[in-house]
Design brief:
mainly alpha, 274 residues, two-stranded antiparallel ribbon, 7 strands, 10 helices, 7% strand, 3-stranded antiparallel sheet
Length: 274
Amino acid sequence: MSDAMLGLTEMRKKCLKDIGFKRFINFPITELPGALLYYVVDKFHPTSMELRLEKGSIKITKQRIHDMIGVPTGKTKLEDLEQRDPDDPFIVEWESQYSNVAKITPAAISMEITSTFDADFIFTINFLTLFASTMGTVDNGAKILTGADTYCNAYEQVGIIGKKVKKGDFYYGPATFLCLLYLDSTNFPQFQVMRHRPAMRRLNTQAMRKRIGMEIKENCLGKLEHHEEFDPEEEQSGLNFYKGMDVYNEPLPPKRPETKDVTFLPYNEPILIN
């Protein structure tokens, strides 16, 4: 996602703004700390839709999804939309972009976005598909959901928080959302960040890495008190602002050449976001 959102033309930026995704321009998260990801997936209970921490549970709602990653919230349900047939000319045209790959993965879509420049309906669908499969769900082979879903209702996809699969401990769902929910909802006094909506605009990769490293050192990962409900005035007051902005300027090491479309979970390894 982060690679695809760099270097967008002004027309493509306008396109994203028009469909409610302006917050994803220059997407700030390139990887997730493995220790944090391992923890939140372990503590996520899909049946009750809760992140169960030592100091209490955090209920996952549509509003929290919106607050963390800025996904638009609408009233139209996927099942209420007219479905396209698998042989619909548009689906055939869309899938033809990927005739040179064995399966359509988030990495393939990201590559298609970065190698083209049109700000047309195809670009919009490419973005929504990438968003849905990166921030929402993919199938158990890292392949995006296709067929009737190819035209991509991203709002519905991100509403499916995903599932854990016991065999192999894989998790298919929005790992970025769970990490942001934990960081935004818990209070770590040694690393104070002014909370923001959506949270991802403040909690970028560097901030995540710094804070989780400190929590591990203090042996308090998952043991923190929870914040009170977010007050919009927090963004204006400057209170609770992170002490030392240099964390946002720390250079990241070069990306590893191997990327992971579906996330699992080495405890102490960063997880790359396509």
